[in-house]
Amino acid sequence: TMGARHDELADLGRDFDHMAARLESLILAQQRLLHDVSHEVRSPLARMQAAIGLAQQQPEKIPDILQRVERESQRISDLVGELLVLSRLEAGVSDGEAADTDLSGLLADIVEDARFEAERKQVVISYRGFENASVKTHGELLHRAVENVLRNAVEHCRTGGEIDMRARFDVMSQTLALTITDQGPGVAEADLQVIFQPFFRSGGSPRPNSVGLGLTIAQRAIKNLGGAISASNRPEGGLRVEIGVPFS
Question: pLDDT digit string (tens) for 193-207?
Fold first, then answer.
C-alpha cells in the first residue's frame, strides 16, 4: 500500500521488508544446516552402536570392530572440526591479521601435498603457475580454499586420470585467477548452482573420504577474501572450478 509513495517512511518500509526477508533466509539456512548435521552425525553413531552390539555377540571380532569404531569416531571428530571452521567463516572471523604472503610458494605447496594424496589413485596433477608474487592477505584462508577444491578434484577424478591446475597473477590489478579441472564424472547441470552448499553429494551418493563441507568452506573462504568461485562442466567430461581473488 506504500509502494507508490516516495518519502522517507516508504524507504524505511522497503528497508524493513528487505531486512525481514534476509532474516527469514538466514533462519531457513540454519534450520537446513541443523537438519543436515543431525543426519550426518546420526549415521556414524548408528554404525558405532551396531558395532558395539556385534562385539557383545562375537567377542572374537573385537579387534576388527574397534577399528570400525575408531573410523566412525574420527569421522564425527572431522565433522565437528569442519563445522567450527564453517561457523567462523560465516561469521566473518579470520585467524590472525593479513600478512605478506608468497602467493606462488603457497600454491606450489598445496599442489605438492595434493600430489602425495593423488598417488593412491594414480592421478597426475599438472600445474602451471607463476613466480615471484607477494601479496598481503590471509594466507590460511586462501590455502584452505584452494586445497579443498584440489582435494575434491582428486577425490572425484577417475583412477589414472589427470587434474590440470592453472594459476595466473595480474600484477596491474593485483588479481589471482585460478582454474582447476578434473577428469571425473562432473555433476548434473541443475546441481552446479548447489554444489557449494553443505553436504552436497552429486547424485545422492555418499563420499566416504569427505564430511561434505570442503567446497562449502572453500566458497566461504574465497568470499571472505573478497573473491568469487564458480563451477562448470567441461565439454569433454569432468568439472572445472574457477577462482578469482583480488588483493588490495
Answer: 889 988 776 654 445
